[in-house]
User: Fold these one by one.
Assistant:
Number 1:
Amino acid sequence: HPYMAVYTTAAGTLPCRIMLKRFLPYYKPYLGLAALDLSCALGLGLADLVFPAATKRVVDVIVPSGDLPALARFAVLLVLLYVVRAVLEFVVGYYGHVLGVNIQHDLRRDIYRHLHTLDTRFFDDTKTGQIMSRIVGDLFDLAEISHHLPEDLIMASVRLVGSLIVMMAIEWRLALVVFAIVPVLIAFSATFRDKFRKAFKRNKETMAAINEHIEESVSGVRVVRAFGNEDFETARFDEGNATFRASRIASVWHIGVFNTGVSFLSNLGLVIVLTAGGYAAFRGSVSMGAYIAFALYVARFFQPIETLVRSMELFQEGAAGFRRFLEIVDTEPSIVDVPDAVELASIRGDVVFSGVGFRYGDGLDRVLEHVDLSVAAGETVAIVGPSGAGKTTLCSLIPRFYDIEEGSISIDGLDIRHATIASLRQAVGLVQQDVFLFSGSVRDNIAYGRLGASDHDIEAAAKAANALDFIRELPQGFETLVGERGVKLSGGQKQRIAIARMFLKDPPILILDEATSSLDTMSELAIRESLERLSKGRTTFIIAHRLATIRHAARILVLTEDGIVEQGRHDDLVNSGGVYKRLYDAQVESLLVS
Ligand code: ADP
């Protein structure tokens, strides 16, 4: 599978070093913010080193001297220190998150832009739910980690190094005892690295599977209802939900064992210090204040180690999200402009297929083979044939939704692969069977054909599409909202909006995929009339599903698995008694029966 291959080979196994290299540029626009955040984190780490030293002074110096004003002055100094610390903490808490949100914004921007460059095939092969969970959930985690991780690293390192230095100064032998525990902690946490990596990857995958299922069963809710398969869908959902639960439980098991182990080891360190330090104080080799300070520093020494090892957890989680981000971002589109691509401007619209062969993917059967077809500018051809013959496919090759494997397609003599994709798609208009309306007003939906079109042009387009009358009757006319939260238009009304869009777009080449479901006679007439108007002067391909609608077409192409097997006018094709005649007879018969 082409895209899955990209997923598993490239980004799925990227080493951390490379991922870091890919992630760092996201900090670049926010260097000031990052510097502020991290320097405040540094300050926080330093501030936390003061308390044990202060305690030592109070116990060893101030209390024995009985100097009450000195104690008060000391207290005031400490309050000031904590005021400063509070400011630092606020800055880290607020601006750190601002940094994270900014990075999240940029990551999301990049992945969204990239999505629109990807081949149509990517969308054939990737579930919407998968894309959604990568763009929404995974990036949220990543944003949190993008600032918490460096903050933690800095604070923890300062506390670690600072407390170590002070401990060495107070009593180096005792400090060495403490230090002996560090390698044990590191070795312990190293055993968890792979476990975390696998667990977090699996969490994200199972979550994405849930999203995928929700997306599908919601968009297909009518099918679910029509078949009364709610229980079946629910059971499938429960299965996915249970898989996620199991995956999550497995990872919190690791987290549980890991956290417990780390805490236990550092508590063990505390006991050792308490005992060894108590012994030293007992022997009189350290002062009482130094002993207390030491015990407080040890806590400040182990805590950052715990933080650091926990950062590893965070890092693995962020890495899992970033890998999934990169899987999409690293998917290269294959349909891109060639270096010297030319603009297709003011073209006439001659379309020529020569020796075209196409298949949807490696290992799949050829859908089209040796297709030769020449359509003159302004000509209208109707394409008919049994379903699955490749009518839709043939037409989707013209705007390069897919690239052909063999032969060439040219417009006005220029191979479409040498034209810029933007200008090619500007030159080709496509009216699809199921019209997609965006949420917004009727006006917005028509203006989609040419963004920024004037009200006058929009109304003219609606008129040409025979849509003006029904639009005027809508509650708010052109401003009526359609789409998910707006009024529901009938199939025929949607078709006319799509046709109005096309009048605005005004492309020299037109592809009409005739609606398969039959419309009421009035709509049908209105639509047929407006389509005739639309196709005037344009090279037009009509994918016809009902032969009645193309009886009068000047040129009918009959496409089967063997390519274009017949072409001509309706009467001639019927008289010649070939494939067309059989298709025609079948349709007439089904009409008579019904
Ligand atoms: P028609 O429009 O004549 O009914 P299509 O062009 O839709 O036929 O389909 C032609 C063949 O290509 C069918 O066998 C169909 O299964 C296959 N096909 C269509 N779209 C895709 C796709 N996106 N990926 C893989 N195969 C496809």
Number 2:
Amino acid sequence: MKEIKKITCIGAGYVGGPTMSVIAQKNPDVEVTVVDLNHARIAAWNDEDLDNLPVYEPGLDAVVGEARGRNLFFSTDVDKAISEADMIFISVNTPTKTYGKGKGQAADLKFIELCARQIAAVAKNDKIVVEKSTLPVRTAEALKNILENTGNGVNFHILSNPEFLAEGTAVTDLHNPDRVLIGGEDAEAIEALVNVYAAWVPRERILTTNLWSSELSKLVANAFLAQRVSSINAISELCEVTGANVDEVARAIGQDSRIGGKFLKASVGFGGSCFQKDILNLVYIARTYNLHEVADYWEQVIIMNDHQKTRFAEKIIQTMYNTVNGKHIAFLGWAFKKDTNDTRESAAIYVADHLLDEEAQVVVYDPKVSAEQIYKDLDYLGTRSPEDNRRLVKVVDNAYEALDGAHAAAILTEWDEFKGYDWAKVKEGMKKPSFVFDGRKLLDRNELNRLGFAYYAIGE
Ligand code: NAD
Ligand code: UGA
């Protein structure tokens, strides 16, 4: 079997960057090149100051610091990297389609197809092409078609190797994965990729399947995880009207080893670039095959999640005497979860949008998200003019400044630092009554009540 000496990854994003950094770290004899069309992103990956990497992940700076320049390279020369590689990972974005057939549900595969066409045009020797992006089941068939019909007589083996890392814990997830999944048809190609991972992952955790099982398993894993969050969030609403406490319920059911304790944390709603996108994709695929009950079943996970975000915003309005017009609401957190600078589909965006419709004055503080990104997220919704977003929303780089003079604080992301604030001091600076709406159940209710806050948390 051919030994893999050079790996190229197309797409230097949240998956391509960290994944390839760890592959390079653990395979010092393999040269790994990550390429992207986005020059600014590549420049940031090459920045001498490791604090400026384009993706914030705990521990990533050390991994990049170890491998970059040794056997890990970031480049914008896509053609060169394709032509030199034995194995090519495709790790480009696969967003939900915003136009045409399947708009709002199907995955947009235009970036994947462009990669396939470029590989076909450039390749002069045999290549293993690895789908790292999350793709609809049977995409490998389309890839194979493009590669074989526009190629130059070169052999391509296609593998599916979906990524299961979660943002905020990407490096530990990559170092110690529950499993690595490899789907394919060609035994030698599969073995070549198994060997790359076997440099640090125990063999029994490297699962091999057929292509279609691998592609589908990725969508199903995300659907199951998101379903648990929507399930506990549905129960959080019931807890609020019955006097039960959702954390206590989660603990009680999670102790049952058949259920398990993970992913039962009630919240203001799940966000992130993938849960919603991948479920919508699953729903679309089911409908394409006329499996309407299957589609409706999974769609409900999204409906519940949208309800949770709306419900949180409405709770704020209703509690503050049915009007937030002109009221200063401090947002603690904008990222979709802690320990990441990623804001894609963050619940904070939708909660803010709802409050801004009511003319609230929102002041945002997030330890890792820039003002530029926050305005970009709001402008992208197209709900109001960019001028209105800037009139109603202020972004500050200090939480105490955000909270000073506020009528209410809303916790949207579970950043650890929020727990350590001097809440007595915060209270002094806030308007009275001082409301705290805890969308992450992060703070201690007894302590906040003792300090005199009007404290509301999801599911209590
Ligand atoms: P991303 O948007 O952060 O990165 C994708 C990158 O690909 C971008 O930098 C873009 O410029 C680049 N790109 C697009 N087309 C290109 C082309 N033709 N040539 C060169 N570069 C190109 O996306 P991401 O979060 O890294 O996700 C990538 C894939 O991985 C998606 O399919 C996603 O569903 C999946 N995934 C993401 C996560 C996650 O935590 N973000 C986890 C598992 C799987
Ligand atoms: C998720 C999966 O966990 C990864 O396995 C997968 O690879 C990835 O999607 C992907 O395909 O993109 P990620 O979205 O990065 O990872 O982060 P999660 O930890 O799954 O959190 C997703 C959202 O659910 C966050 O908004 C989080 O706050 C929320 N969540 C999670 C809860 O509200 N409660 C929980 O108990 C867990």
Number 3:
Amino acid sequence: MTTYLVTGGAGFIGSNFVRHVLEHTDAEVTVLDLLTYAGSRASLEGLPPDRVTLVEGDICDPALVEALVARHPVVVHFAAESHNDNSLHDPSPFLQTNLIGTYTLLEAVRRHGARYHHISTDEVYGDLELDDPQRFTETTPYNPSSPYSSTKAGSDLLVRAWVRSFGVLATISNCSNNYGPFQHVEKFIPRQITNVVDGVRPKLYGAGRNVRDWIHADDHSAAVLRILERGRIGETYLVGADGEKNNQEVIEAILTLMGRPADAYDHVSDRAGHDLRYAIDSTKLRTELGWAPRYRDFAAGLEQTVAWYRDNEAWWRPQKAATEARYAAAGQ
Ligand code: NAD
Ligand code: TDX
């Protein structure tokens, strides 16, 4: 039976992945998570203690990483500083966790011959024009825009180098924007849902024409599991569910679902260097590994997500005031 070491398993996508593994396999999971502002024990609450263990610690700690990798044959690396806006205000933790953390894991994986899967983002490819018929593929050149995406790009390149130079047994996936339960209220969709709950008007950056390619976190988890089970070592797989929507459409959909007028939102100042559009071509993952998304109806997935935030205020409430204070200080 496999035991997965899941870094960042107390964060948004990592905790969804842990639940997905428990539901769809017999595996046990050890979560390694620093429990930064973005991680929470509450995201793993209620999971069976005989199958899930949480180790609170830093992926940049070589001794801890060494000890854990020594007893886990499979490492799935989600841990990161993940928010673009934060990376514009203070890039330093992004360099530390995303680059040094990945390096620390790769060195331990190299010593122990573990199987390693690296979670990354479509943002490494930069952005597309709104009318560009091309979408990102595995051969699109890297062209990241923000401190966040440049450190993710750097971490991907470390993985590629460790595969080629040292024969590390790694795969990489680059996924589009995730939505679903347990996402921190700093991110676009939960921020707007919880604003509406609080009677605050949602905040749209700039004109709101920027397009994101939305995928439900559970579909991302299924793709990662499929790559772990059947992916070819050394390969990169793009993960996306054909979910392109501009930000204005998403805000209007949230307001409508929550019984408010569709135009009851404010425009605020734009993000510096704001990527215009992301779009993923996931043909390789679909044809080689037979993956397909289950959440094909964004409106239905969004409705479920709204219901989750309405029903789980105790989970997000402790983060809300501090998050909004940070945005207010930035005029957003
Ligand atoms: P998140 O911010 O919700 O969670 C990150 C987790 O990592 C938190 O639990 C945090 O405590 C932990 N962490 C941070 N620094 C750590 C450190 N030094 N040591 C150990 N743990 C640490 O992020 P997320 O949205 O769940 O993203 C997870 C991964 O998926 C990231 O690698 C991100 O780049 C990637 N990704 C995210 C999206 C998205 O839409 N959110 C899309 C594509 C890829
Ligand atoms: O209040 C807001 N208003 C707004 O218009 C916020 C928080 C965001 N936005 C816009 C900016 C983006 O165009 O919404 C879009 C989505 O913003 P985020 O949720 O911050 O996500 P994004 O910057 O696209 O990055 C996300 O997807 C790729 C994740 O945070 C990354 O970790 C992932 O790599």
Number 4:
Amino acid sequence: MKVATSILSVKENIKGSIDRLNMSNTDYIHLDIMDGIFVENITWHANELIPYLSNNQKPLDVHLMVSNVKSYVDEFKLLNPETIVFHYEAVDDIDSMINYIKSLGIKAGLAIKPNTKIEEIYTYLPKLDEVIVMSVNPGLGGQEFMMPSIDKVNRLKEYKLNNNLNFIINVDGGINNNTIKLVRSADMVVSGSYVTNNNYEESINILKSE
Ligand code: DX5
Ligand code: ZN
């Protein structure tokens, strides 16, 4: 199972955290970007993160929990992320935003909140590189995994296989050594507090062994 580690719960020495992640087996560094509008919390703008990423070697999975998606895409393209994921609930013209991200040479992902049905995004799946199935309500780290996400992940995987599609299914929120066992049909998970509140290398290796 691929693992993306979120630094959202890291309260100090973010540079040290990212350096540690670069010495770990994490497959991606997951950047949770919040604007205080789409979600209550505010996290980082791209220019705040640039100094922390000076030695970064890991691919970046940028998760935009923002209302003005295009403005943040234009900011975060400067970090050369592998993927930019925006929320289905934040954008009217989803197709144009997917096309715009891809026109920058960046993979495009779509995230859905727990109360958004997978059927609502079927039409976009052939164009997507990644789907984030949120297993918590966006906006906070350290929340409990929401059990109804299990069925969503399994049905999305079934749809992907039945339609011969190749987007990555990524599950984000409340992932630890126990809950990861419930979403084995996913391609990747995001884990924040379970990793950054414990021994990074050990926690990541436990998750990757699932
Ligand atoms: C929540 C974020 C998640 C979260 C993951 O809005 O999108 O990435 O930070 O953190 P944990 O693993 O602590 O739930
Ligand atoms: Zn996230």
